[in-house]
Amino acid sequence: MGIIECKDVCKSFGEKVALDHVTVEIPKGKIFGLLGPNGAGKTTLIRIINRITIPSEGSVKFEGRPITQEDVEKIGYLPEERGLYRKMKVGEQAMYFAQLKGMSSREAAKELKKWFVRFGIESWWNKKVEELSKGMAQKVQFITTVVHKPSLLILDEPFSGFDPVNAQIIREEILRLKEEGATIILSTHNMESVEELCDNIALINKSHVVISGGVEQIRRKYGNNNVELIYTSSEPLHSADGVFTVLSDQDDSGRHTAVLSIAEGSDANKVLSQVLSSGVAVNSFKELVPRMNDIFIKLVTEEE
Questions:
Q1: How many CB atoms sit inside 10 A of residue 208's CB?
Q2: Superfamily of domain 4-220 in the CATH hierarchy
Q3: What percent of the chain shows pLDDT beyond 70?
Q4: What is the pTM of this model?
């Protein structure tokens, strides 16, 4: 049973269908990637989970029962459109949001100070939000999202506005929160982050789920049975009927980088055995698994 189960969720705005019988299950204690191009329906689904809007049809369950407003209070939600009050001081605003989530003044101050120290931003406490850069404000909003230790975090494009160094800091914090038991829904266009962070994904396009499942299973499903072989030889390797076909071979002073297509009925062990019997010196041999970015483009393009 997942922490969140959405079953046959539909949502329309007038004649526009935003979600069309969307069914997804968010496994507890995992990082779940919610993917899709702009306008696919991701944000609408997130807003339904947060009870900001109500589905036209279908159901949303939290830990096996219909989701309630009390359950929403256990969720930390970082929307793509950030919402800090520019004229308020950073510390006052962080305290305000923490107390909105049910924390006492003492508890909020204690936990916020920990986070400010962890991010190295203690000196920002008395600054006004309008004095902060976009990336600095992002850090503050991330802290206000996680400070009450929610069991479920929903992060919508959490790396937007960050330079590579700070984006890596946020990635590390997301992994640490997962280790501490949080479930995280990550809505992002950053496929590198999906591969680095996510255990499972659902790809939504044109209001419906195109594919869902474990990241590694999906990558292997869309693999094309190719391997990369790096070898040393004075002569290039030739295809072997019924075992493999050489698709490409780049020679750099006798050091070759080749891509081989494994024949139907053959396997990696047979390929490697055949290669070794040909007398070349093998430097490396690895399966070529497609990147999530390539799978994303392929599936969305096919839908188009």
A1: 18
A2: P-loop containing nucleotide triphosphate hydrolases (3.40.50.300)
A3: 99
A4: 0.84
